[in-house]
Design goal:
220 residues, Rossmann fold, 5-stranded parallel β-sheet, 3-stranded antiparallel β-sheet, binds 2'-deoxycytidine-5'-monophosphate
Length: 220
């Protein structure tokens, strides 16, 4: 049986941390689909195409060789792992990822990645709803707006990007509004997802919950 664990949720909900830890615990690979959308956005910015030009963004996505493995994102043979976390990409990625034409290309690559790896942990926004509606376990993580802003602010400071927490919060709100309000694959929990509020929970207990659900599904 191919095990697919879908971990969705907004920015700062703890998705990446939980996805990586669940994958390590289960000895399975992990795919950060947000890194794929970020890599396409970087390529769009570098070519100077308009962010709202869906056809141009899709052509760039199609022509870009993107790999995301073990936390390293490569774009056309270049390691862009840090660059895709910078403010330019972060400010533009919601616009580029809202184009259905771009999503179609990346969703096909995400499914191919899972087929190639024989399953795995996949992290994103629409994994349980669109990419893998039959996933073995679907977790949708949420956290309060203040806590999410605090976590993202901590990430920014750790990456030596000095920003005010209010600015991080305003940017998060903007991105959430676009991700949740877009016509295609909006950010929302699948009907059969378990919704976990990570505001006050420690990472270990969230990971243990997802891992135990995956193990019992595997045993069935
Ligand atoms: O998880 P992240 O913050 O790195 O994601 C970056 C952006 O990519 C986010 O604003 C929405 C988009 N995204 C998406 O639309 N679908 C996914 N499966 C993953 C990310």
């Amino acid at each position: 049986m191919t095990i697919v664990i879908a971990i969705d949720g907004p920015s700062g909900s703890g998705k990446s941390t939980v996805a990586r830890a669940v994958a390590a615990e289960l000895g399975r690979p992990v795919l950060d689909t947000g890194a794929m959308y970020r890599a396409v956005t970087l390529a769009v910015l570098e070519t100077g195409a308009a962010l709202d030009d869906a056809a141009a963004c899709a052509a760039i996505a199609r022509a870009s060789d993107i790999t995301v493995e073990n936390g390293v994102t490569m774009l056309d043979g270049r390691d862009v792992s840090s660059e895709i976390r910078g403010p330019l990409v972060t400010g533009a990625v919601s616009i580029v990822s809202a184009h259905p034409e771009v999503r179609e290309i990346l969703v096909a690559r995400q499914r191919a990645w899972v087929a190639r790896h024989g399953g795995g942990v996949v992290e994103g926004r629409d994994i349980g709803t669109v990419v893998f509606p039959d996933a073995t376990v679907k977790a949708f993580l949420v956290a309060s707006d203040d806590e999410r802003a605090r976590r993202r602010h901590r990430d920014e400071m750790a990456a030596a990007r000095a920003v005010a927490v209010e600015d991080v919060k305003a940017a998060l709100d903007r991105r959430d509004a676009i991700d949740t309000g877009r016509a295609v694959s909006p950010l929302r929990p699948a009907d059969d997802a378990i919704v976990i509020d990570t505001t006050k929970l420690d990472v270990d207990s969230v990971v243990a919950d997802v891992v135990s659900r995956a193990r019992s599904a595997e045993a069935r």
